Amino acid sequence: MSMAGNLRKVTGLDRVSGLRKVARLARRRTRVDLSHPARSPLGSAVVNCVTYQKGARVPDAGDLVDSVERVRKSADGFVWLGLHEPTDQEFAGIAELFDLHPLAVEDAVEAHQRPKLERYGETLFAVFKTVCYVEHKELTATSEVVSTGEIMVFIGPAFVITVRHGRHGSLGPLREELEAHPQQLAKGPAAVLHAIADQVVDDYLSVTDAVQEDIDQVETDVFAENSARLDPGRIYQLKRELLELKRAVAPLDRPIQELATRPIRVIDPEIQAYFRDVSDHLLRAIEQIAAFDELLNSILQAHLAQVSVAQNEDMRKITAWAALIAVPTMLTGVYGMNFAHMPELRWRFGYPAVLVLIAVGCLVLYRGFKRNGWL
Length: 375
What we know:
Blueprint lengths: L2 H9 L4 H12 L18 E8 L2 E2 L6 H10 L3 E8 L3 H11 L3 H9 L5 E5 L2 E11 L12 E11 L2 E7 L6 H8 L2 H4 L3 H34 L10 H17 L3 H9 L7 H66 L15 H22 L4
Parallel strand pairs: 3-7
Antiparallel strand pairs: 1-2, 1-3, 4-5, 5-6, 6-7
C-alpha cells in the first residue's frame, strides 16, 4: 500500500475520487497554495505528507506506517504531515498513529488557543497565532485591519505534524524554501519548528509596518484643519484591531524564550541559537505594538482636546452674537413699556437717535469681540 493509500485509511477517506487525488499528488511534487478558504485539494484535511532523510525529500516513501517506523529507527529522517482544519474523525487515526496526547489533540482540532508551548513526553506541542493585514482603501469605523489564524505544531523525534486554521499562513512556500536548504532540514523536526516560528514572527513585523501607515494617516487627519469633525470611531477601531494583534503577539514571548534557552530533548542545541534570533524579532514587534497603543492614546486625547477647543470657540461666538443682540433688545424693551411720562417720547429726533445709539453700541461690541478673537 502506498503512503497516499494509507492516509485514506488513517483519515477516513472513503471516496474513490478522493483516493485518486491523494495517490496522484503523493507521486509527484506540486506547488500547493492553501491561502484560499476551501478545503485541501487532497480532498480532506490532509494538505501534504512527505518523508525526509538527511534533509532530502524521499520521492516515494511507501506506506505511511512503515515510513514512520523506519524514520523512528533511523537517526536521519522524519515525516512531515500537514493538515488544514481537520475534524475529530479525520484527526483520530493520526493521533493514534503518532501517540499524541488527547489534550493537545483537542486543542489542535478546536483551535482558538493562546500561543503556548507544552511538552507531553517526547512530543512538543506549540501553538502560534498567525496574523494578516487586511487591505482597505480607506480606514473607517468598521474596517477590519488585522485577521488572525492559528498554526499548531506537533514535533517528535521522527515526525512533524502541522495543523493550520484560517485562510492565511500557508506553509507550502515555507516547505519549498526548507527543501531548497537540505543542510538546515537535516537538523530534524526542530528546524521545521524554527522555520514556522520565524515566518510567523516575520509576518508580525510586516503587519505592524502596515498598521503604522494607518496610524500615521489618522495622526495626519487629527492635526489637519477641521479635525474636530473627524470620526473618533476610526481611532477606536484601530485600537480594537491593535488589541487583537497584541493578543496574538505578546503571549508568544514566553514560548519562544523557552525554545531559545531551556534544554529540550527534541530541540537541537544548534537550533536554539536560531530561536534567539526569532526572540529578538518578536521583542521588536511587541515593542512596536506597545508604542502604537501609547501613540493612539495620545492621538485620541489630542482629538478630544481639539473637539473641546472647537466647542469653546463655538460658545464664545454664540455668546458674542447674543451680546450684540442684547443691545437693541434692551433699548427697544425699555421704550416699549408705554409709560405716559418717558423722556424723549415726543422728541422729533427720538426714533433716529435710538437707531443711531443701537448701531454705535453694536459696532463697539463687534469691534471688541473681533479684536479679542471671539468673532
